[in-house]
Amino acid sequence: MAESPGTFIREELDKRGWTQTDLARIVDRPIQVISEIVQGKKSITPDTANAIGAAFGTGAGIWLQREAEYRLAFSDVDTAAVSRRARLYDLAPIKEMEKRQWIQQTGDIEALEGELMRFFGVESLETEPQIVASMRRPGDETEPLTASQRAWCFRVRQLGAALMAAEYKEDRMPQCEAELRKVAAYPQEAHKVASVLASFGIRLVIVEPLTGCKVDGVAIWRDAGSPIIGLAARFDRIDNFWFTLGHELSHVRHRDTPHVDSDVAGQLMLPVEMKSPVERRADDEAAQMFVPKQELDSFILRVGPLYSKDKIIRFAHRIKMHPGVVVGQLQSRGEMGYAANREMLAKIRHIVLPATVTDGWGYTIDPRRL
């Protein structure tokens, strides 16, 4: 048990031959205040600590420290429970997961642990729940996922695992891409994307990212024959949607170690030389899927840098692709600024979401259905 500051005050008074009344007069405090402090009935405030420290020549800090140690000895806070809850909040963005109804809201720590174990599909939270995925971001791609990114990935896997799809066969990927290319040419056809993918054995879900979770997409395998693609639809632009999807399809085609990709078609794209070979390949194949490289190279040589809307539209019609997809690729290659031809980047989120299993963007999925 820590000794009260009063014990040390009595020692100081004895050394000096002072009484409590003497100390009260020296520090200009009522004798009752000094008496209650000595008895441990009253706490030492910062002002009183300053005064006593000046009287004894010790400084204020030591008296505030003794006061804190004494009061802490009487604290009945269950620090083990606090530490336990803090760890759960480190593992997952609890408040937002409750708001999104990914887990049930509860004030009971046992129940909260149970909700998280259910969500992550684990029997224990002694170690961090693991999902085989790596984040692509400005900077070091090998950095571990944040709690929000990890939760987002688990939600993608959770929703995708509940979907039905045809048998996945790798040799049908070229046919799948050809069908998607037809859909990508017209914004109003975007509602077909989930059904086209499902017919080729690929499950598509869209999960709105959690706060501060900069992520565009992920490719995850439910099992060896069941790929799942998750998109965040952060940017409501036709070029971003199809490029991100193509990027994740590249990961599926090559059975890459599942990747969580961020800013795959945004202004924060890493310089090519800083990307991993896998990411460079996924970027190249995503671009090639919708705008053949040879065609785009030829167009750039013939037209650049004077990319008028009319020339872009005519080129897009010739290769049977939406002009917005062409604009997106010209921007990503640095042929035009990101502010140029924005009106050609059609919005398709409102077309895709109603026809796709979606969590967020106004859509809620009852966890009891999973």
- Provide a count of the helices: 17
Oligomer: single chain
Strand order of the largest sheet: 1-5-3-4-2-6
Q: Can you tell me the number of structural domains?
A: 3
- Residues in β-strands, percent: 5-15%
Anisotropy-based shape: elongated
Report the order of strands and helices: HHHHHHHHEHHHEEEHEHHHHHE
Helix percentage: 40-55%
Mean pLDDT: 89
Low-confidence stretches: 134-140, 263-270
Q: Structural class, please?
A: alpha/beta
- Rounded to the nearest angstrom, the distance between the terminal CA atoms is 53 Å
What's the Cα radius of gyration?
32 Å
Q: How many β-strand stretches?
A: 6
| Largest sheet data | 6 strands, mixed
